[in-house]
Amino acid sequence: MQINKIKSPEKSEIIMVLGSTINSEGKLSEIAVGRLEKCIEVVKNKDDYLIVLTGGFGSHFNTTNRMYSLYAYEYLINNGIDTDRISALIPSVDTVEDATLSYRVIKHLNPLKVVIITSEFHQERVKYIFGKVYKDFKLEYVSSAYMADNETMRQLALTEERELKQLKETNRSSIGSSLD
Question: How confident is the model over 14-30, as a mean pLDDT?
Answer without folding.
Answer: 94
